[in-house]
Structures are given as C-alpha cells and as structure tokens.
Amino acid sequence: MRLSRRLCVPVAAGLIAAGLAGCSHPAATPADTGRVAENNAEARLTALVAKDQRVAAVAWRLTVDNADLCPATRLKAGWTLHAASQYGTELRPVAERTYGLQGDLPGILSAPAASPAQQAGLRPGDVIVAVDGQPLSTGIAARARDQTYDGLQANIDRLNSAATLGPMALTVRRDGIERSVTVTPERTCAYDTQVEVRDDLRALSDGRTIFVSARLVDIAQDDDQLAFLLAHELAHAVLEHATVPDVQGGRGEANAQLSLRRGLSSSSEGDADTLGLYLLARAGFDPGRAVQFLSAYEATAPGSRYPQVNLRGVYRSIPDRRRALEPVIADIARRQAAREPLIP
C-alpha cells in the first residue's frame, strides 16, 4: 500500500477574495482566529474521516465477497489505519486529540461491519501498540515538511506479516488504557483501497492499491453508486490490467472461470464496467441503482458525455456506457433468479 499524507484541501483564493469584497466585519482577535482555524480543521478532519469510513465499508464487502475471483488474495483484518505522522501541521494536533494517535503507531480509522477488526471489538480511536507481544515503533518526532512514512509502513508491514499466520494477539490502547485483543484475519482480495485528499475526479487501480479522490466519493449518492465506482477499479485488478510483481497471494478458486479478457486491451474499460457490476452484485449491492453513478458523474463532468482518450485507455461516452450495461444488468437479474453463479 502506498501511504499518502493526510492534508486539508485549501480554499480557493478567489472565493476568499469575493467574500472580502462583498462585506465588512470587525477585525478578528488572535484568539478568535485561532478558534476559527481549529474549528475548521476539526470540520475538515471529520468530513475526511467520514469519507474514509464510507469507502472502507463498501470496499470490505467487495473484496471479501469476491475473493474467489481475485488473482491474488491474502488474510486481512479489514481495518483502515492511520497515524499522526501522516497528517500535516494543521490537522495533526486535531487527529492526535481526537483519535489518540502518537507518531507512527497505527490507529484504527475504520473497522467495517462484520470485518475481523470489528468482530474483535476494535473501533476508531484505538491505537495498536504491539503485535504478538512485540512493541511497534512510535517513530521519531519530525516536522510535517520533513515527514516520512517509512516508520508507519514498517509497522503496517509487521501487522500484515502477522496476519498471514492467522490470529493476531494485539495490544491496543484506548483512552490511555491498554488491553489485549485477538483478531482472526479473513481471506479477501489482496488490494487495498485508499481515499486521496485531492479535488479532482480521479480513480485508478495500479495493481496494488485502488485510489479514489475525495471529490469523486462525494458524487456517489448512496452505497450502491459508490460500489459501482470501487467495483470498476477492483475489476481492473481482477482482470490484471495492471499488475505489481510483489503483490502475492493465493489465486481465488473461481478466477479461472472468468471469460473476460486478461491484460490491457482496447476493451479494458468496457470489461471493467461489465465485471464491476457482477462484483458489486455478488457483494449484495443493486446493479440497477449502482449504474446511476454514471448519470451523477455526467452531471458533474459534462465532458464525459463524449468519448475520452488518455494514457490509460479509451473511455466511451457516459450514454454509451449506460446502454452497454443494460443487457449486463438484465443478465445478472436472470442469473440471480435462476440461482446461477454470477461469473461473466
């Protein structure tokens, strides 16, 4: 998993200027300014965490219910982790205070329903301080501009290694009190999912991690639509449109039954749309509602009404994608009614 810095998104300068030109207020005192900044930081962190937790919940269902189709699977706890060292200067104090974070120690950002982490009683605000009796590293305090994720990555690598062996004995700190819990990992697709703090409309799968921008998450009006977005990227991984040599794990037992083309081709995007609908249906999401994400996306990005070409491939227009998926939705409904396997 490629770790990223957890930053706030700055307000556009033009919006600030417009506000100053349109009204006049008494000058703020330093104390007032500090309280406003802190409140804004808390609001941004709350909004960001809500996106992380929403994505984590949908991603967990997709990866655990489609493990049999993935070309690489591994045992996972289902949690999403974060650490103080990931946050910039503005958000770090708020994250430390809110979630009890300390340096590179991994904290629970999300423990989706029915995940091993949730079943073990873990919740946001818990910080993992040791695994199998061995302390994790808190790292060295550093300024935000000098920060490195090596320490956090080393801690996550230790947790991942422990998960491959089965049940993990963790020491967890909550509200200053340490306790022991046992987490029994479950086999899922090997790919992680990460929300990127960026204001463009971007999602991609690099063969190791599924990345989705925070703004793109906001377009999805419900979990079915969010499942379409994430399942499309998971489908790219399942069909091995991009692979990373060091992503290892057992191949799902039903992976060989897929009839769609493997590897990059001119049909990759269409194949990811098709397989994505099957993946989300297998996870209990509604394909008919899910495909409405395309209309929501079109309303936000009018250029998507026309074909697009970039370095990652050829993208059909949104109207063409909707039409192409109509028979796929019908086939899924037929298979569900006949209790046939949902494997295209």
Helix content: 40-55%
Proportion in β-strands: 15-25%
The end-to-end span amounts to 29 Å
Give the spatial strand order of the biggest sheet.
5-4-6-7
Largest sheet, if any? 4 strands, antiparallel
> What integer value in Å does the Rg equal?
22 Å
Number of helices: 11
Average pLDDT confidence is 87
- What global shape is seen? globular
- Helix and strand run: HHEEHEHEEHEEEEEEHHHHHEEH
Number of strands: 13
Can you characterise this structure?
The protein has helices at about 15-20, 30-65, 90-100, 115-120, 150-165, 215-220, 225-240, 270-280, 285-290, 295-300, 320-335, and strands spanning about 75, 80, 105-110, 125-130, 135, 170-175, 175-185, 185-190, 190-195, 205, 210-215, 310, 315. The strands form five sheets. It has a four-stranded antiparallel sheet with strand order 5-4-6-7. Strands 9-11-10 form a three-stranded mixed sheet. Strands 1-8 form a two-stranded antiparallel sheet. A hairpin with a 2-residue loop joins strand 12 (about 310) and strand 13. The chain contains eleven helices and 13 strands. Helices cover about 40% and strands about 15% of the residues. Helix 7 (about 225-240) packs across helix 8 (about 270-280). Residues about 5-35 have low confidence and may be disordered. With about 350 residues, it is of the alpha+beta class.
